[in-house]
Each structure stands twice: as C-alpha cells, then as structure tokens.
Write a structure and sequence with these properties.
Residues 1-35 form the signal peptide. Keywords: Cell membrane, Developmental protein, Disulfide bond, Glycoprotein, Membrane, Receptor, Repeat, Signal, Transmembrane, Transmembrane helix. It is found in: Cell membrane. Belongs to the plexin family. This protein has 213 residues and is mainly β. The protein folds into 3 domains: 4-65, no CATH class; 69-167, Immunoglobulin-like (Sandwich); 169-201, no CATH class. It is built from 3 helices and 14 strands. It has helices at residues 4-12, 169-174, 180-186; strands at 22-32, 35-44, 58-59, 69-73, 76-78, 85-91, 102-107, 110-113, 115-118, 124-129, 145-154, 157-167, 192-194, 199-201. The strands form 4 sheets. The protein has a 5-stranded mixed beta sheet, with no helix packed on it. The protein has a 4-stranded antiparallel beta sheet with strand order 4-6-10-9, with no helix packed on it. Strands 2-1-3 form a 3-stranded antiparallel beta sheet, covered by helices on one side. It is elongated. It starts with a helix and ends in a 12-residue tail after the last strand.
Length: 213
C-alpha cells in the first residue's frame, strides 16, 4: 500500500498557498520486496498535466485516505498451483481507465496486459496474467517463499504497486527439520503434513486421506 503519510506531508508543506488550489500528485513509485516508496510532489493544479481529469489530482482537503492502494487475490500462491492470473482491486483516487493502456509490471521491461473488469468509480477491478514460473527468481536458499513485486502502469506511468508471495510447503518442512510438522502446520499459508512420507505438502491428495491440517 502507498505510504499515506508521505502524500499528506507533501500537502502540509503548502498550507501557505492554499488559495492556488494546492494538492499532490504521484510522480513515481518504487517497490522493493514488501516496501513501497512513493515520490510525490506538492503542486498547484494547473501544473499537473492530467489535473483536470477525474481523480487524477488530489487536493489537500481530501486527505491521505485518497492515496491509491491495491489488494491482490490470492495474496499467496503455492509454487505447485496452476494459477494463471491474479486479481487486483484498486482503491483510492485513480483516473478512469477507459481507453487507457493498462499493464502489470513485474520488473523493468517485464509486463503483461491487464484485463479491466470495472474501469470506473472509486474501486477498479483488474486481472493480471502471471508470468511463466521460470521467469521468476528462484526461492532463496534457507527460505520457503519469494516476494514478487507488481506495479500497475497506466499509459506508461506507475500509479500503484504491491506484492504477492510464491511459497513452497516442501521447503517449509525441510528448513525446519527438528520441528517440520509443527512448522508446516503453523505457517502463514496453507500447508498439509503427510505423516506417511514425513513431508510438508501444499495440496490435498485423495489417495492420502491422513494428511494433517
């Protein structure tokens, strides 16, 4: 989610020139792992290139709750799951997406085209195709998950960013050999304990009715 405090502070610095229609606009967004940083600048409305378009410029009076934020579904994905797309709900002040080029960017020069299901109003729903599995970095040694950053770009400009997690239940058990069962069943994502094979697995198998969860 965007750091609302950054946006609000940007507006506070301009209290002395409120009569000039002072507000803020996001000029760039950078996402590093679980941290999203925002570069915003305080400006008068006429200096914002898109300032006259609906929800493209936020005035001081509207407050930080209008900062764009995004929710991804599912937020965690098993490395063995056959999931092709991730759903994205955008809240806050974002211009209407009608006629815009909307992309999900997974890194410099790596993006997929977005399918927009609801492109107007305060909440906007989109579907982003996931990259092929081999395009993601490998899960680091000694860990059981990878954080994948994704930014929504509208006509080439990043407007909001977030992240989701790719996890591997088998690694969860392997990196905690002395407490593999407990670690498997108490992890933040859904894993199952295979008593017969002493393994942490990510999905139920009808041939193995005795999986613990």
């Amino acid at each position: 989610m965007l750091a609302a405090g950054v946006c609000w502070a940007c507006g506070l610095r301009s209290l002395g020139i409120r009569r000039l229609m002072v507000g803020w606009m996001v000029s760039s967004i950078t996402s590093l792992s679980d941290t999203t940083t925002v570069t915003c600048r305080c400006t008068i409305q006429k200096e914002c290139a898109q300032g006259l378009l609906a929800r493209s410029w936020i005035s001081m009076g509207e407050g930080p709750q209008q900062c764009p934020s995004m929710t991804l579904t599912p937020p965690e994905i098993s490395i063995s799951a056959d999931i092709k797309d991730v759903g994205i709900l955008i809240n806050g002040s974002v211009p209407d997406l009608v006629g815009s080029r909307v992309e999900c960017e997974y890194g410099p020069g790596v993006s997929t085209a977005v399918t927009v299901h609801l492109d107007y109003g305060p909440a906007q729903i989109q579907t982003c195709p996931l990259l092929p599995r081999e395009n993601y970095q490998p899960i680091p040694p000694g860990t059981d998950h990878l954080t994948v950053s994704v930014a929504i770009k509208v006509n080439g400009t990043s407007v909001v960013s977030g992240s989701f997690i790719i996890y591997d239940c088998e690694r969860t058990g392997a990196i905690h050999p002395k407490t593999s069962c407990v670690s498997c069943l108490s992890t933040r994502w859904k894993c199952y304990w295979d008593q017969e094979n002493h393994l942490c697995v990510s999905s139920k198998d009808e041939s193995k009715p005795n999986l613990l969860e």
